[in-house]
Amino acid sequence: MKKVSFKLLMMLLGVMAFSVAFTACDDDDDVSKASVVGKWTLEKFEVNGVVDEEEEEGECKEKQDYVEFLANGIFKDVYYNQDCKAETEEDKWKYEGDKLVLLFVESNGVVTYTYKGVYIVKTLTENSLVLEYYKSYKNDKEIMIDDDDDGKADKVVIYFRRLKS
């Protein structure tokens, strides 16, 4: 089975530059802050409420694939091939209001495509990040995500766990 990288997942879905912190507080609690900046690994990938087990498996069993969001607006997709050698791709991220936006550029040497994946941040804590697909664009044209090929737009939810550095 071919490993599906985080970048490819996002392109399939949608085929974050300063860190913006989410703040939750009430009058009696300390202010707690969480930021998307850091390293995250995929825990679960759901399409219409069904877990897609294939999306969770990596090619290298000894090392863990991850994505790293940097404070400067760059994100790195690090995945390990079947020889357990790291392959890294870099793209951009930003916040637009309460949505996380991932920006990709792909080229085959002849044609260049730009992709923009927009995700609702459902959960962001120190250890958990849950994104729900919102909209995707290819060359500024909105595209539908139909991961299960039923001709209808899918509800896609991606669960991440923060990696300790």
Write up this protein:
By secondary structure, this protein is mainly β. The protein has one domain: Beta Barrel (Lipocalin). Helix content is 8%, strand content 50%. It is built from 2 helices and 12 strands. It has an 8-stranded antiparallel β-barrel with strand order 3-5-6-7-8-9-10-12. Strands 1-2 form a two-stranded antiparallel sheet. The N terminus is likely disordered.
Question: At the third CATH level, what is the topology name?
Answer: Lipocalin
For the record, the count of structural domains works out to 1
| β-sheet strand percentage | over 45%
Strand order of the largest sheet: 3-5-6-7-8-9-10-12
Low-confidence stretches are: 1-32
Distance between the termini: 29 Å
Task: Describe the protein's topology.
Layout: H1 6-14, E1 22-24, E2 32-34, E3 38-47, E4 50-51, H2 53-56, E5 66-69, E6 74-80, E7 86-96, E8 99-107, E9 112-124, E10 128-138, E11 141-143, E12 156-162
Antiparallel strand pairs: 1-2, 3-4, 3-5, 3-12, 5-6, 6-7, 7-8, 8-9, 9-10, 10-11, 10-12
